Amino acid sequence: MENRYGTMLLAEVERHTWAWPPETIYWGGGTPSLMPLPRFDAVMRSIPHESVVEATLECAPGTLTAEKVEAWRRSGINRISFGVQSFVPEEARRTGRKHTPQTVRTDLSSLKEAGITNVNLDLIAGLPGQTRASWEVSLDWVERLAPPHVSVYLFEVDEDSNLGREALLGGIRYGAALLPTDDAMAEFYERAVDRLAAIGLKRYEISNFARPAYESRHNLKYWQLEPYVGFGVDAHSFDGTFRYANTDDVEDYVIGLEEGKLACVSKTSANREEERFFVGLRLADGITPTPQEWARFEQPITRAIDSGLMSHDGNRLRLSDRGYLVSNEVFQEFVHA
């Protein structure tokens, strides 16, 4: 099935009619760095490259080889995003990772030798067993390695995972009893904001921190409601008016494309006014509502400002530091308002 999937992924890209020249490419979902190099190169070559300025590949630490890195570079990859999650081996193992801090250091050196210095490191705050002290260890390693971009995500309980089910049931298996409290997770996040700022990594989006000019240009497109097209299982696309979703079933995806069908299984209209608030407000720069938006969302805006969750500078709206910690609650206020 894996080989058939790769064949159909290439077919989906080749069949696509490009309405605009892509400026960024992002390989995510699962571990795309494990795709066989000939297939990876074939997919990359099938994408118009004339306007591409950033091409990112997600990798798990310890999966790199000199051959892979050089092949990715030749294919056009110029940015790598590492799913480190934690620099504490015991915590990393609970996420399915097997790396050590030295593994990440070695991988970064390999990339630098190949000329790829635009790197992101993913961290997760709130992993089972994580403590203030262990979180400091991960932040110490970030400071030591000095990447130009870091993403910090709050751990979310996935009800489809063993850990998630056990946590929801109040059990202790799979480390469920070791999950930090919500207050502890918020503390970890705020500590990361302070320490990353101290080494020149400015928060430009709720979960993303970068040196100037190293912001993820691809992800900025999502937050600024620019159009994008996705390929593969469970991929999503947006043309500025409608949102499209591919099937999330691998077998359906492969068989459907083999039979000449489209991978897309849903098409919905986008509500740009609502989306501009709960997507645009993720950015540190915030948004400038139109007069119509000020009128429509006057009540939720006023509530958020009065409760200290948002601030405004003239017509510019931004989340406050406290607002970042409860951003989902803030965004919900603008849905169907």
How does this structure look, described?
The structure is a single chain. The chain is of the alpha/beta class and 337 residues long. It folds into 2 domains: 21-216, Transcription Regulator spoIIAA, CATH 3.30.750.200; 273-332, no CATH class. It is 42% helix and 18% strand. The chain is built from 15 helices and 12 strands. The chain has helices at 2-15, 37-45, 66-75, 89-93, 101-113, 132-145, 162-168, 182-198, 217-223, 250-258, 272-280, 291-296, 298-306, 321-325, 327-332, and strands spanning 24-27, 54-59, 79-85, 118-125, 149-154, 202-205, 208-210, 236-238, 242-246, 264-269, 310-313, 316-319. The strands form 3 sheets. It has a 7-stranded mixed sheet, with helices on one face. A 3-stranded antiparallel sheet has the order 8-9-10, with no helix packed on it. Helix 1 packs across helix 10 (250-258), helix 2 packs parallel to helix 3 and helix 6 (132-145) runs parallel beside helix 8. The longest helix is centred in the middle third of the chain and has 17 residues, at 182-198. The model has no long low-confidence stretch (mean pLDDT 92).
What characteristics describe this protein?
337 residues, alpha/beta, Transcription Regulator spoIIAA, 2 domains, 15 helices, 12 strands, globular
Order of helices and strands: HEHEHEHHEHEHHEEHEEHEHHHEEHH
Radius of gyration: 21 Å
Shape: globular
- Which percent band covers the strand fraction? 15-25%
Number of strands: 12
Characterize the biggest β-sheet.
7 strands, mixed
Helical fraction: 40-55%
Q: In the CATH hierarchy, what is the class of the largest domain?
A: Alpha Beta
How many domains, in number, for the residues? 2
Strand order of the largest sheet: 1-2-3-4-5-7-6
Count the helices. How many?
15
Stretches where pLDDT is under 50 for at least 5 consecutive residues are none
Kindly report how far apart the N and C termini lie.
45 Å
**CATH fold group of the largest domain:** Transcription Regulator spoIIAA
